[in-house]
Structures are given as structure tokens and as C-alpha cells.
Amino acid sequence: MYPIIVLLFMGVLPVGTILGELEVLHSHVPIVLLIGQWFVFWSFGVRLLTAGLRQVVQPAFTAKSILGIEGDDALLLVQELGFANIAMGLLGCLTCMRPGWILPSAIVGGVFYALAGAKHVTQKGKSFNEVLAMVSDLVIAAILLGYTALVFLGRA
Question: Which DSSP state fits 25?
Fold first, then answer.
């Protein structure tokens, strides 16, 4: 189930929403801005909000399946991570109502995913779920930080 959720939030839903805006709604918004808007919403906002809720309610899943930590020692820490993910995810979701928050959300999300992905790279003996988390974190970091760079360079 975890791989399906990651693929949905990190690719299928943002790309589908962008294509829907272009093809169905005939949006004239530049593609770079659509990429920023919908990857921030889905890959940063919805993904972290749902991950955070799961980490608070079911911390053992993240501890065991993604971080490879057995036992109950890390559960409190995973729940605290969940609180941070809920807060960041909420910020990303609210960009639909506050477009001015897209760039700050892209910066926060890009830095978060880059650091999380880099940390996964250093882990030895990664499980399939940790490899998936690492790859998806690094891809989304590149998209969000690339969007940020284009905005700062005045190309968006």
C-alpha cells in the first residue's frame, strides 16, 4: 500500500492535475507555475499531512517499515515527527487558498525532502520502502527547489 500512496502523491496526482488544468480547463497559467502549485499541494501538502496523521496514530509503521527501527523506543520521536509533518502538510494544502504561499512552501518542502533524502542515502541495508522514500524525497526536492530557482531567476 505504501508504494501506491507514494506514487500517487509524488507523481500521478500532481501530473494529472497539471494535465487537467491544461487540457480540460485550458489554463493559460505558465507550466512552471502549474508545476509549483500542484507539486507543492500534492507532494508536499497532502503527502506530509497524511504521513503525519499516520505517524501520530500509527507510529510503529514509520519506525519499522521506513526507518528500520524495531521496538517501542522510537515511537514518541516518530509521533513528534508526525506533528511537524502535519504542520508542514497543512501549509502546503492551504496554498490552494493562498497562492502567495506556494513559493515559501516550495522552499520548506524542497529543503525538507533534500535533507530527508540525503539522510536515507547514508543508511546501509535499506528496505524497499526506505529506498522508495529516498528516491521520491530526492525527486520531489529537485522539483520543488528547481521551481524555487526558476522563480528567483525570474523565469516563472
Answer: S
What total number of domains does the chain contain?
Answer: 1
From residue 16, give the alpha-carbon distance in Å to each of 8, 19, 141: 10, 5, 19
Residue positions counted in the chain: 156
pLDDT in tens, 10-27: 999 999 999 999 999 899
Which domain covers residue 29, as residue numbers? 2-152
pTM above 0.70, yes or no: yes
2: Cα separation from own chain's centroid: 14
Q: Are 95 and 101 in contact (CB under 8 A)?
A: yes
Q: How far apart are CA 106 and CA 14, in angstroms?
A: 14
71 sits in the region (left: phi over 0; alpha: psi -120 to 50; else beta) called left
